[in-house]
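Hi U.,

Before I forget, here's the chain from the pilot set. I'm dumping it here mostly so it's searchable later in email.
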Amino acid sequence: MEASKIDMGATNLGATNLGAMEMDTMEMDTMDMRTMETMAFSDMMTLPVETRLLTLGRQITALTERLADVSDTAVLRSLDAMQAAGLTMPPAIEPRRIAAVYGYALSGVPACGLTAATLKLIRGSYATNPNVLLGTVPKPPVLAALARAEALTLRAELARKREILASLSANPSGNRRSAASRSRVRALLEHFHRTQAAAKREAFCPRSDGAVPAANAIPHAKEASHAA
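Structure:
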């Protein structure tokens, strides 16, 4: 990262346009984070097992990508966006060392957390945080702590979805047996209805030899259904 790109005096039109575009991109990233393939748990559990597994797999992949470590480019993008919004860099840090210091402090921090923290800093959402001075880019350790805190919700969501996936994957045969069982029940019911209909036809249609139809034909079919 070039220190000149995050110089405190970078207020020309090009830097302003860059910051505006970066903030728009961060807004879109955050909106995607909120709407990312989310489905109510109760709705998901009504889907076939195979569909649930595929849906969970896609959601886990998307969350894992969101929680990937922040890149040097993303750190620069965050600093540019905050400066474009009017926030000033900490005066104690030499301009030529800003890129290296922030890059080191934010190493291993989730990219989604830095995006969320950057937007909140621009909006002044940390007004009650004693470690944040409004109008100033937080010092590197503070910015890293804010970014990690913002990623906690997604980390918990990822862990929850992995647990659900493991639970569904642990006993796939049980779900198949349930489907087979339902199929057998349907077959028994269909057999009962056919037997019942045939018995009714026999009861109301006189036989050619004049014999009386068996009176226990219908109850027998019902008993067979209950036994099944």
